[in-house]
Amino acid sequence: MIFSCSVDDGHPADMRLAQYLARHGVNATFYLPINNVEGWPVLQGAQMRELAQGFEIGSHTHDHCFLNRLDDQQARFQIQQGKRALEQILGRGVTGFCYPGGKYRPVHLQMVRAAGFHYARTTRNLHLDPGPGRFELATSCQFYAHGRAVYLRNFLRGGHWMRRAPLLLDGLRRRQWQGRLHAMLDQALARGGVFHLWLHSIDIEQMAAWDALDGFLRHVAGAVSPAQRWTNAQLAAHYFSD
Ligand SMILES: [Zn+2]
Question: What transmembrane ranges does the database entry give (predicted)?
């Protein structure tokens, strides 16, 4: 089984999260906007560069705008400018993109490709496979206290039902959200494939779930060999080479 981890939004609590990941030797990709129109604080340039020393950095548009709410010109600007600004801050290329809010239309896949990104990630969940395409990488689950109803709703909306049913069923069997995530990881370990965790550090902060996260990462580190802990750039290159 391959394990990957995505962290979205570039909240300053990402620096604390990075310490937890590093402690367990778990790889991750951080998707950073330059600003956040929703008003959340974002990492400073120096912090972004520090993160980039240990982790893959991807773009999350310039201002964390949901692309489906923008016209084509605004969407193109957000995609291109987010990449340019981040590359300027980091002094290196950025090849990964993540759609804010998981919202996009088919035209945005083309825009992301045309901007020079190699892959893009969505918020589709319950996948144990890398996703339907290079510009639509999927996830397995979010590190969040979702209720069962949320998983059911996501499942019904997300399609690919045969592929996604095993994780759903395993998740629904557990009453407690942390237990659900551990059960999903065990399911992935038993079946093989890709387990892609995603989270927001601000959620961990607000749920006071740092210990729960620490326990989950310990579970990962104990069960997944270091060679199988990949960044999303590695995932995309391996499964969608063209
Ligand atoms: Zn986001």
Answer: none
Domain of residue 110 covers 2-144+194-239
**Rounded Cα gap, residues 67 and 33, in angstroms:** 13
Q: Does residue 163 belong to any structural domain of this protein?
A: no
Count structural domains, the chain.
Answer: 1
pLDDT per position as a tens digit, 190-239: 999 999 999 999 999 999 999 999 999 999 999 999 999 999 999 999 99
Ordered DSSP codes for 169-218: HHHHH-SSHHHHHHHHHHHHHHH-SEEEEEE-HHHHHHHT-HHHHHHHHH
CA neighbor of 58 nearest in space, from 26, 93, 25: 93
Ligand 1 center–CA 61 separation, angstroms: 9
Is the predicted pLDDT of residue 242 greater than 80, yes or no? no
Question: Rounded to the nearest whole angstrom, what is the distance from the C-alpha of residue 138 to the centroid of ligand 1?
Answer: 15
Q: What CATH number should be reported for the domain holding residue 7?
A: 3.20.20.370
| CA 11–ligand 1 middle distance (angstroms) | 10
Residue 133 located in a structural domain: yes
Note whether residue 24 is domain-resident: yes
In the chain, pLDDT over 70 holds for what percent of residues? 100
Cβ-count burial of 35 within 10 angstroms (0-12 exposed, 13-18 middle, 19+ buried)?
Answer: middle
Q: How far is the CA of 190 from the centre of ligand 1 (A)?
A: 30
